[in-house]
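REQUEST ID: PR-0412
SUBMITTED BY: lab tech R.K.
PRIORITY: routine
TASK: structure prediction, single protein chain
INPUT:
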Amino acid sequence: METFKISELAREFDITTRSIRFYEDVGLLQPERQGNTRIYQRRDKIRLKLILRGKRLGFSLAEIRELFDLYDTNQSSSQLNKMLNIIDTKQEVLQRQLEDINVVMTELQIARDKCLQALNTQVANNQHKP
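STATUS: complete
OUTPUT:
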């Protein structure tokens, strides 16, 4: 079974070992211990990847923990429905953000094009001056 040291995970995900220990402190990771050494399994590595991705997408650590808890337990219909509600809500937020980003990207491109056009006009005018 493949295992990882905390320093290996920190290096791979470009985060500090302190961050990984924090995720352990709040119950999102549960590495095995051999004395003072933490031994992370493949499951821990996957969970760390999901934590970091969730944070980038705007999930709070509480939401991430809730999703992990729902996933880790024997899932009843009510738990699955709750998980679906969390996912649906987050998808709606992300979809709105994506639409906002697309609008801003279009506006930035228009502004960029106008700047380039103005620069080209200035260069052309300067070339025609004696």
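NOTES: The chain has a mean pLDDT of 90.
REVIEWED BY: pending
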